[in-house]
From TrEMBL, chain A:
This is Glutathione transport system permease protein GsiC. Residues 391-576 form the ABC transmembrane type-1 domain. It is found in: Cell membrane. SUPFAM superfamilies: MetI-like. GO terms for biological process: transmembrane transport. It comes from Marinomonas aquimarina. The gene is gsiC_2.
UniProtKB/TrEMBL annotation, chain B:
Residues 83-423 form the Solute-binding protein family domain. One of its GO terms (biological process) is peptide transport. CDD domains: PBP2_NikA_DppA_OppA_like_3. Transmembrane segments: none annotated. This is Nickel-binding periplasmic protein. It comes from the Bacteria.
């Protein structure tokens, strides 16, 4: 790696850009070849999309569609035609309604960007509050971990649940805001909030973690003893904490742009996520290719701005090896109280599993949405099945799937993070693809294998970890001792083992654990497409989806799995807290 | 420093905001003016499906145009599926294969142009040339030409008793030439003839209509209609509860219990929830096992638990929406109670697009397992499962099926689902007797004779246990107390018309 860089200095400058272009080209080509790989005739799905389910799929109708779309061309011809037009700024016409792709994209894109900005603004407001709160405690000399648990709750809530609860509370109960639509400011609040709450949970957690680390650095003690005003220290600490988080912030922003599919669907907002989702389902390749191309380009632009800002803030200290910070560590908590709480929570969860194992999770034995009683401690679901039994029976397999997916994402993310220069484009590209769309694409390409859901989720969730990893490596390399290591003859392997890994692993593991609940849920949420868990298995994501329509009548069906996830998240966090 | 970065952030993020608000400011103003207008007479609709193809009448979107009474057809179909005059005042079968339609005089399109036979031919020809052809024309070749300013000749390839009914399909709406654009798209803005003029199409968000004062019939009572598309069932129910919309399409069963019953109306729908059994391969190729499955299904439990009683138990393939069917249907033979399977394992497929189907599947699994089957479910999105279902990869498939197509006649549905060459034959079912019966039914003239032939064909299908009809769904429509005379149409063709009023 080193020799390549010394041989071609330009190479190291160009590598990220080459990888970006490569990533875009690969995505577009794979999309273009999708019908051929999957062996599904697009004329069928287009026919369905144009005419609806009641249309009879006669050979005559299919032939008409095929002729209309010139589907007799080979995939290569199609790709070539598309690419040569795209280079001239013509993204073609939709296969479904023959409208120009670019017009539709620009319109939906502006909607999505507006939604993203307002969600982002809300996120910053919420995080600002969290930071002020934390600083208040730091000044008083104590570290509060209360809001850690609160942010764990926020992170564990999937957006579609937040959205439904918001409609219930603000539109139905209080009647303050319209339940859906996209007309004027008052319709902007609920969807923005639905996006901002989980995002701010994640952001404030990462920021808190980073801040904690920064405040333990040697310079803080020096400054404190030199009687520097605490406000100044806080400002410097914040600046440093944020700068190392910029790649994470960009990831969150990117996630808000394309990842809002569920929220757009619920609030019926004409955003780009919905457009692409529709195109994916119908195999409307021109819209799909054009849409993802623009979405990915925006994602790359956001990420580049972030990287540029980071360079600007950290400035020279990155290159000259003058960044001094203490590595954080990852070990079991030393506090007895926290350990006991964590163990108590885990024992409680285990108790639920054991209790539930004596009950039948499949049989409709109670009334529809039966309320809690002695026979059914937390009631029944829509079919009168025992919720407790389903909760317990699903716990182990749900966590198992989530942990495997998270571990795989961590491994892939770390590996890619080490070579961020060459994988930069792929990091930015995969993060921008909403997981539902990734699921549909994987289903199209690999078919309905048992592992499709896992592949899809790992595919879209390694990127934030890789981005985090690469920025940590950058920091670690900027530490004086790493910088000087080659001088006293430390080998590459030694540097990796004793200098880099101890620095990057602890925060990365924490980050992965933070994402565990969301990864777990999205894994099982894909089952509605037909990927992953099959009904009627009591997988938690499936349970949430099944019970969401009844949230007003029997909230325990949705709350059960979410409380379980939150408890698990809190326990794990307590266990590895300082 | 922190202030500076904050400032920079604030500026960076407000800039695009400002840019976007330009357009939504207009929308906001519009919303305000709309709010004023509602004091005049405006109706807000919450529709279920967003348009597929920008409201082109050649696709499924045609039903929206007819639900809003903006596009009209030559013929109207009465609630009893009888053809009535609309844009055509009369018609005549001059030869077995030739029909003459007289076009109504004095009709103007919303853009002011006069309706003539030329426009009728133009619209029908566009439908005939469409890819795909509107489903009502499936397997049917029509030749259309103008005989004068107000007469149109239609030639068919066989003596088709249903031709006038076919022409009532919303997909064969007559639009002004301005709607048909050069690139092949059809944009129905100000191009219809109905009591409401379509003014704005805002993509998959909303559409706006206003009263057309030169309508040929009785003028509309309300001034404007705003239709919004709300695909999420929970949000649609919320619209009704909060009064955000006056009329709400398809309220999901799961939400009914939380809504004031005064706001809801129910109409039996020509839709049957059917379990198709694969009679070609696997466990159910044995008719005895098909009987076991048919006997095992407890329809009442499904209707009560999943539909909370808002559905009708099915006696045959055709439900109460076709009122003539039940009286002439013979009593079905009772199946023995003690039929049991011996642990044969079957896979039942269904899809998630209709929210109730996965729940029906879960209940069916329990019922069939109680009868001795070992059941596995395969539930996916419709688009992901259709191919496998058509290829016969499942032992059984649960489908919610529309039983009459746009002509109001169920023969086409039966042919496609149960004839040997049927294009939607999920059960891979093939029987000479049934084919014969269907062929016979299709040639009967409308009326008693045809109805009897249809029921005979239905019984032939049921006697072979090719499919087990479970229940008939209902259209559950929400209306606030502010509106009256909203059409409650089981075939989902009409919703708002000239008689609809605001109190």
């Amino acid at each position: 790696m080193r020799s390549v860089e010394t041989l071609f200095p330009a190479m190291s400058m160009l590598a990220p850009w080459l990888s970006r272009v490569a990533a875009l080209v690969i995505v577009v080509i794979v999309l273009g070849l999708m019908p051929d790989i999957a062996g599904i005739d697009p004329s069928q799905t287009i026919l369905r999309a144009r005419a609806g389910q009641a249309q009879l799929m006669t050979p005559e109708a299919l032939a008409a569609v095929r002729a209309d779309l010139q589907l007799d061309r080979t995939a290569t011809e199609r790709l070539w035609d598309w690419a040569s037009n795209a280079l001239q700024g013509d993204l073609g016409r939709s296969w479904i309604d023959n409208s120009p792709v670019l017009d539709g994209l620009l319109q939906t894109m502006s909607t999505s960007l507006l939604l993203m900005s307002s969600a982002l603004a809300l996120t910053f407001v919420l995080c600002g509050t969290a930071v002020l709160y934390r600083m208040y405690f730091w000044r008083k000399g104590s570290q509060s971990s209360n809001h850690n648990s609160f942010s764990t709750v926020l992170i564990s809530l999937p957006e579609y649940v937040v959205a439904t609860v918001l409609i219930l509370v603000f539109a139905i109960w209080f009647g303050l805001l319209p339940p859906y639509g996209w007309q004027g400011f008052e319709t902007l609040w609920l969807p923005s909030l639905a996006l901002a709450l989980p995002a701010s949970g994640l952001f404030s957690r990462l920021l808190g973690d980073s801040l904690k680390r920064v405040l333990k650095e040697p310079w803080v003690i020096t400054w404190l003893s030199a009687n520097v005003a605490p406000n100044l220290i806080i400002r410097s600490a914040l600046k440093k904490a944020i700068s190392s988080l910029i790649p994470q912030i960009t990831m969150i922003i990117i996630g808000l742009t394309g990842g809002a599919v569920a929220v757009e669907q619920i609030f019926s907002i004409p955003g780009v996520g919905r457009l692409i989702l529709g195109a994916t389902k119908a195999q409307d390749l021109p819209v799909l290719q054009g849409g993802l191309l623009i979405l990915l380009t925006i994602s790359i632009a956001i990420s580049c701005t972030g990287l540029f800002l980071q360079q600007l803030i950290l400035g020279k200290s990155l290159k000259s090896g003058k960044l001094i910070s203490t590595p954080s560590n990852f070990r079991f908590t030393q506090s007895k109280g926290k350990r006991n709480t964590a163990i108590a929570i885990l024992l409680f969860l285990l108790g639920v599993v054991v209790w539930a194992s004596f009950r039948d999770p499949y049989l409709s034995q109670f009334g529809r949405l039966a309320s809690p009683s002695l026979a059914a401690p937390i009631g029944g679901d829509g079919l009168g099945r025992d919720l407790l039994a389903r909760l317990g029976a699903g716990m182990i397999s749900t966590f198992q799937g989530g942990i495997i997916a998270t571990a795989l994402s961590l491994l892939v993310g770390m590996f890619m993070g080490f070579f961020a220069r060459y994988t930069q484009g792929f990091i930015e590209v995969t993060k921008a693809i909403p997981y539902i769309i990734a699921g549909l694409l994987i289903a199209g390409i690999f078919g309905m294998t048992p592992y499709s859901a896992l592949i899809a989720i790992v595919l879209v969730s390694w990127a934030p970890l890789a981005a985090h990893c690469s920025s940590l490596i950058m920091e670690a390399k900027a530490q004086p001792y790493t910088h000087l290591a080659p001088v006293w003859g430390a080998s590459q392997v030694r540097i990796l083992r004793f200098y880099l890994l101890p620095y990057i692993l602890p925060p990365l593991l924490r980050h992965a654990l933070l994402r565990l609940p969301v990864t777990t849920l999205s894994l099982t949420a894909l089952s509605f497409i037909g990927l992953g868990a099959k009904p009627p298995t009591p997988e938690w994501g499936l349970m949430i989806a099944e019970n969401l329509p009844y949230i007003e009548r029997a909230p325990q069906g949705v709350m059960g799995p979410i409380v379980g996830l939150v408890l698990f998240g809190v326990a794990i966090n307590l266990l590895f807290d300082d | 420093m922190r202030l500076k970065t904050k400032l920079a952030c604030a500026i960076a993020f407000t800039l695009p905001l400002v840019g976007c608000f330009d357009s939504s400011d207009k929308q906001a103003e519009e919303a305000v003016s709309n709010a004023n207008a509602s004091e005049v007479s405006e109706i807000r609709l919450a529709m279920m499906q967003p348009p597929r193809t920008g409201l082109s009448p050649l696709s499924d979107d045609a039903f929206k145009l007819s639900r809003w009474s903006t596009a009209e057809t030559l013929v109207n179909l009465s609630p009893d599926s009888e053809a009535q005059p609309m844009l055509a005042t009369s018609w005549e079968q001059v030869e077995p294969l030739v029909w003459h339609f007289t076009i109504r005089e004095g009709v103007t399109f919303h853009n002011g142009e006069k309706l003539t036979a030329k426009d009728v031919v133009n619209s029908l020809q566009a439908a005939i040339n469409a890819a795909p052809k509107p489903r009502i024309l499936d397997g049917i070749d029509l030749e259309v030409r103008a005989l004068g300013d107000y007469q149109v000749e239609v030639k068919t390839t066989f003596a088709d008793p249903l031709l006038p009914s076919r022409l009532s399909s919303p997909q064969l709406a007559i639009l002004a030439p301005s709607a048909y654009q050069e690139d092949g798209r059809v944009v129905p803005i100000s191009a219809g003839t109905g009591p409401f003029e379509l003014l704005e199409i805002n993509g998959t968000t909303s559409a706006k209509l206003e009263r057309y004062d030169n309508y040929w019939g009785e003028k509309a009572k309300i001034e404007s209609v705003i239709a919004e598309y709300v695909p999420d069932g929970f949000a649609r129910a919320a619209a009704l509860k909060t009064g955000t919309a006056d009329v709400v399409e398809a309220v999901p069963v799961a939400q009914i219990a939380t809504i004031d019953p005064e706001l809801l109306t129910e109409v039996a729908m020509p839709r049957t929830n059917t379990l198709y059994l694969n009679s070609d391969s696997g466990v159910f190729s044995d008719i005895e096992l098909r009987k076991v499955a048919a006997a095992a299904i407890d329809r009442e439990q499904i209707v009560n638990v999943v539909y909370e009683g808002h559905a009708d138990i099915a006696e045959g393939l055709l439900g109460p929406a076709l009122a003539w069917a039940a009286p002439i249907r013979p009593e079905r033979p009772e199946l023995a109670d003690d039929l049991k399977a011996n642990g044969e394992s079957i896979v039942i497929g269904t899809f998630t697009d209709r929210a109730e189907l996965p729940e029906v599947a879960a209940l069916l699994k329990q019922q069939l397992e109680a009868a001795g089957f070992a059941v596995e479910l395969d539930i996916r999105e419709y688009a992901q499962i259709e191919n496998d279902a058509l290829a016969g990869k499942f032992d059984a498939f649960i489908l919610s099926r529309a039983t009459v197509l746009d002509s109001g006649d169920p023969v086409a549905y039966m042919v496609s689902d149960f004839s040997c060459s049927g294009s939607f034959n999920l059960g891979q079912f093939c029987s000479e007797d049934v084919d014969q019966a269907l062929k016979h039914a299709d040639l009967q003239p409308l009326g008693k004779q045809r109805n009897q032939a249809i029921i005979d064909a239905e019984q032939a299908i049921l006697n072979d246990y090719a499919a087990v009809p479970m229940l008939h769904e209902r259209v559950i429509q929400g209306e606030t107390g502010r509106v009256s005379n909203v059409v409650r149409d089981p075939s989902e063709r009409r919703l708002i018309n000239q008689f609809t009023e605001v109190k």
